[in-house]
């Protein structure tokens, strides 16, 4: 029997193979949660709409006029168009780079190293987390293709489900602490900051967020722990469910270009234009990095995306190959394009319409945070809140624009280091990705699996990560002191 994703059920795959069909207690519990989520959990777009309704009602209850709430909804709807384009391009170009022919060659070479199935799962976890520090989209696709390549090595007896879960750890552990962090990128770019937010936080450069030694220490700890958990939770060889057991087609994902059929296609198949464009593009990048330095230049979303555009163009080499890669990657950004306008509207409704005493809803929520927290407990309080909200709003950048107005106002009042507050959000925001299937979709499409195949392993990581992340957010936060916002 084949499910909608094209893979056999695990129970059917293991019958008659001698594999143990009884999962452990924690995995069994996680699979029940996954079954419940698959039946009752709506699309993320529905949650975005629910968020609009809840915030609108909250603003009215706090005393804002319904007409003012409606006005802020409309005025905020299109305010994130530049940022939406930036995030969408980042995701698309990461996919293009990961699916290029040179990347496929590198993946084949990397797949030669592991010598055991459990070792292969740990190896995948390490690779995806390191790549995620550069680009979350690149890590997701690159690691998925690495899983498929390793699965072709039948002698490894690698559990395909555990390997798929390991490939997702970049999104569930480290990506938001790297340079593609949406929240850190927003805060470092005055052009991306909504006016309603910039007055609260000012501009926070990368040196005060992802390049803090405290933040980099978190990356090291999470990477080591995740690799260990991935290794220990991967089924032994005699209990592994391989891609072959699941009936997954492991054909080469990089297809050869069709033959040129008409003279007008000559330039599409020639690298001449690619070389010309790359010379101009990299020429500009050299000047940009020389003038501003790497940290300042790469913190600009436009420069970051421009770099990936040029890398993707060169790796694809021929315009036709680049066009086809873009076409395959485009469906992955559909959710970003349709949901981010709603996040912009939510952010506006939080801060624009004034209620009782001339106070906005964001101010009421900030006051609540201040009342239930202290300077030292704020990282834990905010971390728990961000993780819970992240399950319902699975978008790092969009959710930051919803949370930032009130949590950063509370951070200012409690005298919490603003850059660390951003990193608290980043570290906690990644946690729900381990149990929310939203960002799994591109990975699942490549692996031909369903979310329930991976949740048992990612839920194990979630249980281990959560207390460790909260403890580090609290402890490392004690080493930082508050600095007032820096206005552009």
Estimate nothing, just give the exact number of structural domains: 1
- Averaged pLDDT: 84
Shape: globular
Number of strands: 0
Low-confidence stretches: 1-9, 11-21
Cα end-to-end separation: 60 Å
Radius of gyration: 23 Å
Helix % is 55-70%
Q: Report the β-strand fraction as a percent range.
A: under 5%
Question: Number of helical segments?
Answer: 26
The description of the largest β-sheet is: none
The run of helices and strands is HHHHHHHHHHHHHHHHHHHHHHHHHH
Supply the helix-strand structural class.
Answer: mainly alpha
3D structure, described in words:
- By secondary structure, this protein is mainly α.
- Helices cover 68% and strands 0% of the residues.
- The protein has one domain (75-254, 267-477).
- It has 26 helices and no strands.
- α4 packs antiparallel against α20 (334-351) and α13 (213-233) runs antiparallel to α26.
- The model is unreliable at 1-9 and 11-21 (pLDDT under 50).
